[in-house]
Design a protein that fits this description.
The complex is a heterodimer of chains A (329) and B (340). With 329 residues, chain A is mostly helical. Chain A contains 13 helices and no strands. Chain A has two domains: 2-73, no CATH class; 87-324, MetI-like (MetI-like fold, Orthogonal Bundle). The longest helix of chain A is centred in the last third of the chain and has 38 residues, at 232-269. Chain A is globular and about 85 Å long. Chain B is of the alpha/beta class and 340 residues long. Chain B has two domains: 5-223, Rossmann fold (3-Layer(aba) Sandwich), CATH 3.40.50.300; 230-337, no CATH class. In chain B, 33% of the residues lie in helices and 23% in strands. Chain B contains twelve helices and 13 strands. In chain B, the strands form two sheets. An eight-stranded mixed beta sheet of chain B has the order 7-8-9-3-10-11-13-12, with helices on both faces. In chain B, strands 1, 2, 4, 5 and 6 form a five-stranded antiparallel beta sheet that branches. The termini of chain B are far apart. The chains are: A mainly alpha (329), B alpha/beta (340). The A-B interface holds A 219-221, 223-231, 234, 239, 242-243, 316-319, 322, 329 and B 57, 59, 87-88, 90-93, 96-97, 99-101, 104-109, 118-119, 122-123, 152, 154-155.
């Protein structure tokens, strides 16, 4: 098992390295000169040269690349062109906000999808089964900004049930993440964005769980479990759902990647001060160091969550551990 | 063979509703299983043998309609028993199963021993330690190392899984063990070892066994009494000796021809032309009449009744009085070829 985790960790580092390299190239290949934001062409030629040298931009590309990698590891990610704040400070604050919303959205998608999928398969062709499929597909077909807008319009503006956006009331910024979690106002505000992303991605785990449940329910070990005289609830959860879950866990790691896309839309819509919103803002204001930091941080988040699902999968399926020990599956 | 009856089934019928019409999977099947005996049910694939045992264990889907005049297990009427009581008091504790595909009948994500312990604990108040001890003992009985208990099914070979399934079936000392093709899919050597183990276990336990297989050799070797099933009907039922010495149904005669025998070396095997009926729609007449070289006019529109030839010998054929003559004719290849 330790061997397996170590191997996964190494894969994770290689992936991160690849992402960082692609980002380095991408920002240098963008049309237009990124440095124009800081080094104005109206300045004296000599001043421009000196500023370029100060940023290390006069060095050859390969050397810049190694400096870039070194700075990444030592957490010197530069300063914002707009606010001159440290990028790491901006991004790390936003990171937790995004993580909170993303995890709560994924939790909703997965628990609702898995739970409902189990019951729908167990009661195949019942009104619940058909209704669940329809609702899941409607929310998947509707873009999240439409769902979110409709929710804001009805529940927030018309009925006044939920605040219209943000993470906490203006002027009540908590000093730590724990302070935030203790605020009822925070929980009030996370409901709508969570519901919006949660429902948007619901159909995928729901239908996958339902399908793999149906497949498992037709298998020989389920018939044997029935012959053993076990209770239906034991057969449904301990025997069937436990196996059907394997398909959904694989899916979860893919879903994490997709969730970033929904995150950008939902954070902008609900003024959630997370990385999705930051990504949009920094790109619009040509704040390249911040944009680069945000991209990198999002990549770390997705790769990290993927790593967790991989570990979870090997815990759920005993056959995986064996293949990690070198015996074929 | 004692006269203590463990299972009595009378006039069991199973119908499926399908889009092509009703399927008559099991028709008017009656039999008894006595204590300590192995009752074999032989038949080709699709003849209804698996449906029959699934009906007994109530494992059929809702689309199947099961009717019977009597199903009694150890004196208990199973037919009118409510679902919950059947599950708690009958399944596995009085009637257990060695399934057809041992390969896939163990849940891949749980340790083999735990799956046996689960069966024990579902029907008794044994503690984990007691159930574990019992499981280790069961492993020992079927010839598996008790320390393999903590392995996962994928770490077992086919033969080992089959042994584990047999161990599981013995877990609660049931009065009746149903073995559905217990050796299909195993190679001959493993098959022989499993069969030998089953015979040894029979000496030690008092369970009766229903053995279902399409393999005539296996059934001849293992069973005290044998029923030959075709098209959902029991065509012939007799003690193993009677069935092979004085087979009386044309289908049994055909089956005997199709299997090699050591005694009749060099003899050509004769197969029965044609294929079994689909069982869809209202079936009239004997299901075998189209393939039967001895069929007479009313075979096609009237179902023959069961005729008793000896104490344990029953046959479902209009021509049961002509059997010596039919036996003679059936051993000639031309008799069967005339049908083509």
């Amino acid at each position: 098992m330790a061997d397996y985790i170590l191997r996964r960790l190494i894969y994770m580092l290689i992936t991160l390295f690849a992402v960082a390299s692609i980002l380095f190239l991408m920002f240098r290949m963008l049309p237009g000169d990124a440095t124009l934001q800081v080094i104005s062409p109206a300045m004296d030629e000599a001043v421009q040269q000196r500023m370029k040298a100060a940023f290390g931009l006069d060095k050859p590309l390969l050397q810049q690349y190694f400096i870039y990698l070194k700075n990444l590891v030592t957490m010197e990610w530069g300063r914002s062109f707009v606010t001159a704040q440290e990028v790491t400070a901006i991004v790390s604050y936003r990171f937790w906000n995004t993580l909170l919303l993303m995890v709560s959205g994924l939790c909703m998608t997965l628990t609702l999808g898995i739970g409902l999928g189990i019951i729908m398969a167990w009661k195949r062709n019942s009104p619940l089964d058909i209704g669940g499929t329809v609702v899941g597909l409607i929310f998947q077909a509707a873009p999240p900004f439409i769902t979110g807008l409709l929710l804001l319009m009805t529940l927030s503006y018309r009925l006044g049930l939920f605040p219209t956006g943000g993470m906490y009331p203006a002027g009540a910024r908590p000093d730590s993440i724990f302070g935030l979690l203790l605020m009822p106002a925070f929980w009030e505000r996370i409901v709508l964005p969570t519901f919006t992303v949660g429902m948007y991605y619901l159909a995928t785990p729901l239908l996958v769980m339902r399908d793999s449940m149906l497949e498992v329910l037709g298998s020989d070990y389920i018939e044997l479990a029935r012959a053993k005289g076990l209770k239906s609830s034991v057969i449904m959860f301990r025997h069937a759902a436990r196996n059907a879950l394997l398909g959904v866990v694989t899916l979860a790691s893919i879903l994490v990647g997709f969730a970033v896309g929904g995150q950008v839309v939902v954070e902008s819509l609900f003024s959630w001060p997370g990385m999705g919103q930051l990504m949009v803002e920094s790109a619009a204001s040509h704040d390249y160091p911040v944009a680069q930091g945000t991209f990198l941080m999002l990549a770390i988040l997705v790769i990290g969550l993927n790593f967790i699902t991989d570990i979870l999968y090997s815990y759920l399926d005993p056959r995986i551990k064996v293949s990690a020990e070198g015996i074929s599956r | 063979m004692s006269n203590n009856r463990v299972l009595r089934v009378k006039n069991l019928n199973v119908r499926y509703q399908t889009q092509q019409g009703p399927v008559h999977a099991v028709n008017d099947v009656s039999f008894d299983v006595f204590q300590d005996e192995v009752f074999g049910i032989a038949g080709e694939s699709g003849c209804g043998k698996s449906t029959l045992i699934r009906a007994l264990m109530r494992l059929l889907p809702d689309s199947a309609e099961v009717t019977a005049n009597e199903i009694t297990l150890s004196g208990q009427n199973l037919e009118s028993m409510p679902e919950r009581r059947f599950r708690e008091e009958v399944l596995w504790s009085k009637m257990s199963l060695v399934p057809q595909s041992a390969m896939n009948s163990l849940n891949p994500v749980y340790r083999v021993g735990n799956q046996i312990m689960e069966a024990i604990q579902a029907h008794s108040s044994k503690t984990n330690a007691q159930a574990r001890e019992r499981t280790a003992h069961l492993f020992d009985i079927v010839g598996l190392q008790p320390d393999l208990m903590d392995n996962y099914p994928h770490e077992f070979s086919g033969g080992m899984r089959q042994r584990a399934m047999i161990a599981m079936s013995l877990a609660l000392d049931p009065g009746l063990i149903i073995m559905d093709e217990p050796t299909t899919g195993l190679d001959v050597l493993v098959q022989e070892r499993i069969l030998r183990r089953i015979r040894e276990i029979r000496e030690e336990i008092s369970s009766s066994i229903i053995l279902i297989t399409h393999d005539i050799a296996v059934i001849a070797e293992m069973s005290d009494r044998i029923a030959v099933m075709y098209g959902g009907y029991f065509m012939e039922q007799a003690t193993a000796i009677d069935l092979f010495e004085t087979p009386s149904h044309p289908y049994t005669l055909g089956l005997k021809n199709a299997f090699p025998s050591i005694r009749r070396k060099g003899q050509e095997l004769i197969s029965i032309p044609g294929s079994p009926p689909t069982l869809i729609g209202e079936c009239k007449g004997c299901p075998f009449w189209e393939r039967c070289p001895f069929s007479v006019e009313h075979c096609s529109n009237e179902t023959p009744a069961i005729e008793k030839l000896a104490q344990y010998h029953e046959v479902r054929c209009f021509r049961h009085k002509d059997t010596p003559q039919l036996r003679e004719l059936a051993s000639k290849k031309g008799t069967w070829l005339s049908l083509d």
